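Before relying on records like the one below, remember that each one covers exactly one chain. Contacts with other chains, cofactors or solvent are not represented anywhere in the record.
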Amino acid sequence: MILRRVDKKGLLLWVLVAGVLTLTAYNTMPLDLIESLFVAASMSAFIVMLIDKSQAIHGGRRLSERSLFLIALLGGSPGVVTGVYLLRHKSRKLSFKLILFSLVFLQVALIYLFYTDWAIVT
């Protein structure tokens, strides 16, 4: 997967903000590390969506949809979904929403399987 320079910067920003928010959440809230990471990834994904929306309004360099999908796949899907509906960013693109909600469905299914000890319902 070859990313443009702006995508690399956007992903680096997301990782850095998620790292700072993870440490903050872990040290200030009654959450374990995994929960803190999930909250931080979601919050930082929303921040990235906010920046990308601002860039769209002002005609600046924007992240590719591939980068936004990668952020969603790596745990930021609640933040990306919130950005779609609260910021109205990418809300008109049906293809974006279909892929995003497919990723969300995949994550929910994997979390369900993980927390049910990989039990298969018969």
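Residues 1 and 31 are 34 Å apart (CA to CA).
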